[in-house]
Specification:
The chain is an alpha/beta fold and 711 residues long. The protein has 23 helices and 19 strands. β18 (525-530) and β19 form a beta hairpin.
Length: 711
C-alpha cells in the first residue's frame, strides 16, 4: 500500500493533469502523448488490454515511476491515495487501530486543535495574540469538522464493516489476517483518509459481492477524483462517470459508464471504417482514370490533378485501430453423469462450537449453474468445500451422483501445479491431442504471451499460478466444477473467455464470485447463505435480487404496520390479486353514473344525460368502453399492486436509514458491541435494499405513465 499526501486538502475543480505522457519499455511503446485531466467529483475507469500499461500510468501519476516524456501536475494542496494490487501489513496494531492511525492529516489537525485550546485558555490577555489564536482555531476547527474528525472512529468502523469485517474482528491484530483481508484493511485506510485523488488498482479482487456493492455506493458518491483499474464490468457501470481507454498506444477518453464506452467505441469504429472505405473508393476511382489516360497528351492536366488528389488522400488516409483477436473457447464435453449430480442431506457445520448452519438440504442436477451468494463470513466457501469434498460436515451427508467427479478451483489451492514444469509443460500434461498452437492460444487468453509459456512454475507469481490452474481446468473439465473467485488476476478479455466457456458448459457449476456481470451471465440458480440459513432460489441472479427485495420489503412493511391495525389485517388477509381487484373496482361501483359499474348506468343518469342535450351513447358503445377500461385496469393490476408494495416499503426504509446515520454519529454506540453489530447489519441491509427499491419504483411508475401492460 502506498499513500502520499501533497500539502493540505482544499476544494479545487482540477485535481490532476497528466499532460502528453509517453512511456516505453525496451522497444515497446506503451503510449505516446497521452493526456488525462481529472476533476473533483469525476470517477474514471482506466481500461485496456493486459500489457497496455494501466498500472504503469497509475504509478506515473503517483510519482513511483517516471515518464519518458510529459508531465504530471496537481492542484495546490492535493492529497493522494493509492491502492496497489498487493500489500502486506506488519506490527501489532488492531485492524481498527491500523485504519484510524492512517488518517494522519485529520489526527494532526486534532492535535493542533488541542494545542490551540490550551493556548487560548492560557492567554495572558494580549488582545492581538488572542485574536490571532482564535482566528487560527476557527480555521483548524472548520477543516477538522469537514474532514470528519469528530466521527473518525465511527467512520472507520462503518467502512470496515461495510467491507465485510465482523465487529468481533476489529480488535484482531492486522498482521494475523490473510492477504485478501489485509487488502481490505488497506482499502479502508484510504477511504477513511478521503484523499482528493483516489487511485485504485483492482479494488474488488478480494471483496465478496455484498462488499463490492457497498464500495460501488461509496465511490459513486465520492466528492474527490477517482481513477480505478478493474476487470469487473458491473462494478464500473455502477460507479464510474468517465472512461479512459489505453488502446493502440493511445489514450482516448469517453464520458459515461463502461457500457456507454463500449457503445461509443463501436460507433467510432464504424465511422472510421466508413470514412476509410470512402477514401479507398475515391482512390480506386481516380486510379482508373490515371491508368487509362496517363499517356494521353490531351488528358495530361486532368491526370496530374488526380495524381495530386490521390497523394493527398493517402496522406490523410484513416488508420483503423488494431483489433485484438478474440479467443473463443468451449469446454470439451464432460463425462455423462446421472441427473442428480450432488445431494446434501441434513448438513450441519460448526467450527469450535461456532455453528455455521444446520439442517441444510440441497440437490444440484446436471446442467445447474449455481451461484453461492451472501455476506462475508456467512459460510459460502465452507459450503463449497463441503460440496467438493475438501472438508467434512459436522453432521449429515454429501453424496455424488453416478459417474460424477469434481474439480475445485480456489486462489490458495494450487498444489496440483508442478514447480519444475514450464507453463507449456503443465498444459501438455492435461491437453492430450491439442497442438502447441492451440495450447498457446488458450494460455494467451489467460495472459501468458510469447516467452511467458517457457517460464517455470516455481518462478510464477501467485496470480500467474492461479491463471495457469484455471486454464488447465478448462482443458479437461470434470462434470462438477467448484470455482471460488475465478476472475481474480484476469483482465476483461480473459474474463470474457471464461464467461463464454462457463455459459456453454454442459456439466454442473458451483460458483462464488464478486463479479456481478459473470454471476448474472452464468448462474441459473442462486443459493443465498446468511444468518445461519441456506436458501435456494430456482432462477437467475436478477430473479434472486427481485425476490430478496420483495422479501425485505414485506418484512419492513410487517414491522412498520401495527399488528392489530385494519391495514395490517387487510394486507395479510388478501391475495395480491384480490387486493388489487378490490381497490380497482370498489370506487366505481359506488358511483351511480359510471357506465362500467355492474348493471350499467342507472335510469336517472341516462335521463340527465338526455336533458343536458349531450350525445347519448348506445348501450353497446357503453359496454365496449367499460370492457376496454376494465381490460386496461386488469393489464396494469400487478404493476399497481407492486408499486403500492414498493412505496410502502421505501418510505420507512429511507426514514430508518437516516435514523441509523444519526445513531452511528453517537460515540456511545461503539461501547456496546452487540448493539453496534445489529446497527451495522441493519445499515448494510438498507444500503443494498433502498437503491433496489428506488430503481424498481422508477421502473413501475414509468410503466404506469406509458401504459405498458404487465408481462
Amino acid at each position: 500500500m502506498a499513500a502520499t499526501t501533497v500539502g493540505r486538502r482544499r476544494e479545487k475543480s482540477l485535481i490532476v493533469l497528466a499532460d502528453k505522457i509517453s512511456k516505453s519499455f525496451g522497444g515497446q511503446v506503451l503510449y505516446s502523448q497521452a493526456t488525462l485531466q481529472l476533476n473533483a467529483g469525476e470517477r474514471w475507469a482506466l481500461v485496456g488490454p493486459n500489457g497496455a500499461g494501466k498500472t504503469t500510468l497509475l504509478r506515473i501519476i503517483m510519482g513511483l515511476e517516471s515518464a519518458d516524456e510529459g508531465s504530471v501536475s496537481f492542484a495546490r494542496g492535493t492529497t493522494i491515495g493509492y491502492l496497489e494490487q498487493e500489500t502486506k501489513l506488519a506490527g501489532e496494531k488492531s485492524a481498527l487501530k491500523e485504519v484510524i492511525d492512517s488518517a494522519t492529516e485529520i489526527r494532526t489537525l486534532g492535535k493542533r486543535l488541542g494545542e490551540l485550546e490550551h493556548a487560548i485558555s492560557d492567554s495572558n490577555g494580549s488582545e492581538d495574540g488572542l485574536e490571532a489564536l482564535l482566528e487560527e482555531y476557527g480555521r483548524v476547527r472548520d477543516r477538522f469538522e469537514n474532514a470528519g474528525g469528530y466521527e473518525l472512529e465511527s467512520r472507520a468502523r462503518q467502512i470496515l464493516c461495510g467491507l465485510g469485517f465482523p465487529v468481533v474482528d476489529l480488535d484482531k491484530p492486522a498482521r494475523e489476517f490473510s492477504g485478501g483481508w489485509q487488502m481490505r484493511i488497506a482499502l479502508s485506510k484510504l477511504l477513511l483518509r478521503h484523499p482528493d485523488l483516489l487511485l485504485l488498482d483492482e479494488p474488488t479482487n478480494h471483496l465478496d459481492l455484498e462488499s463490492v456493492r457497498w464500495l460501488e455506493g461509496f465511490i459513486a458518491g465520492y466528492d474527490g477524483a477517482v481513477l480505478l483499474v478493474s476487470h469487473d464490468r458491473a462494478f464500473m457501470d455502477a460507479c464510474v462517470s468517465h472512461v479512459a481507454a489505453l488502446e493502440n498506444r493511445r489514450l482516448t477518453t469517453y464520458t459515461g459508464s463502461y457500457s456507454s464506452y463500449l457503445k461509443q467505441r463501436e460507433d467510432n469504429l464504424e465511422q472510421l471504417k466508413a470514412k476509410r472505405a470512402a477514401q479507398e473508393r475515391d482512390i480506386a476511382h481516380m486510379q482508373v482514370f490515371i491508368d487509362r489516360f496517363r499517356y494521353k497528351p490531351t488528358k495530361a492536366k486532368q491526370v496530374q490533378e488526380r495524381i495530386r488528389k490521390v497523394e493527398q488522400i493517402r496522406e490523410e488516409l484513416v488508420v483503423l485501430p488494431q483489433q485484438s483477436k478474440r479467443v473463443h473457447f468451449r469446454f470439451p464435453e464432460p463425462p455423462r453423469t446421472g441427473d442428480t449430480v450432488v445431494e446434501l442431506s441434513g448438513i450441519a457445520k460448526a467450527y469450535d462450537q461456532n455453528l455455521v448452519y444446520e439442517g441444510v438440504d440441497l440437490t444440484f442436477y446436471r446442467g445447474d449453474h449455481v451461484a453461492l451468494v451472501g455476506p462475508n463470513g456467512a459460510g459460502k466457501s465452507t459450503l463449497m468445500k463441503l460440496i467438493c469434498g475438501s472438508e467434512a460436515p459436522t453432521a449429515g451427508t454429501v453424496e455424488l451422483g453416478q459417474n460424477v467427479t469434481r474439480a475445485y478451483y480456489a486462489q490458495h489451492q494450487l498444489e496440483t501445479l508442478n514447480p519444475a514444469n514450464t507453463v507449456l509443460g503443465e498444459m501438455d500434461g492435461v491437453a492430450a491431442g491439442w497442438t502447441t498452437s492451440e495450447e498457446r492460444q488458450l494460455l494467451g487468453a489467460f495472459l501468458f504471451h510469447g516467452d511467458d509459456v517457457e517460464k517455470r512454475v516455481s518462478v510464477l507469481s501467485g496470480g500467474e499460478r492461479a491463471r495457469l490452474a484455471l486454464a488447465k481446468m478448462l482443458v479437461a473439465p470434470d462434470p462438477l466444477l467448484c470455482l471460488d473467485e475465478p476472475t481474480n488476476h484476469l483482465d476483461i478479455g480473459s474474463v470474457d473467455v471464461l464467461e463464454e466457456a462457463l455459459k456453454g458448459f454442459a456439466g454442473t457449476i458451483v460458483l462464488i464470485s464478486h463479479d456481478e456481470h459473470l454471476v448474472r451471465a452464468v448462474a441459473n440458480k442462486v443459493v443465498d447463505i446468511r444468518d445461519g440459513h441456506v436458501t435456494l432460489y430456482d432462477g437467475d441472479y436478477d430473479y434472486y435480487l427481485f425476490k430478496r427485495a420483495e422479501l425485505e420489503a414485506r418484512s419492513e412493511e410487517a414491522v412498520a404496520s401495527p399488528s392489530g391495525s385494519p391495514r395490517a389485517k387487510s394486507t395479510r388477509g388478501k391475495s395480491p390479486e384480490g387486493e388489487a381487484t378490490a381497490s380497482a373496482n370498489s370506487p366505481r361501483r359506488s358511483h351511480p353514473g359510471f357506465a362500467g359499474a355492474e348493471g350499467g348506468p342507472t335510469p336517472s343518469a341516462t335521463s340527465n344525460q338526455k336533458g343536458a342535450g349531450r350525445n347519448v351513447k348506445t348501450k353497446e358503445q357503453r359496454r365496449a368502453e367499460a370492457e376496454a377500461r376494465n381490460a386496461a385496469n386488469a393489464r396494469m393490476r400487478n404493476t399497481k399492486r407492486r408499486l403500492k408494495e414498493v412505496e410502502s416499503a421505501l418510505e420507512p426504509a429511507q426514514r430508518r436509514y437516516k435514523e441509523l446515520m444519526d445513531l452511528m454519529a453517537d460515540e456511545a454506540l461503539y461501547n456496546d458491541a452487540a448493539r453496534f453489530d445489529a446497527c451495522m447489519n441493519e445499515y448494510t441491509a438498507l444500503s443494498k435494499k433502498i437503491p433496489v427499491l428506488e430503481e424498481e419504483w422508477l421502473e413501475l411508475t414509468t410503466r404506469l405513465e406509458e401504459g405498458i401492460a404487465d408481462d
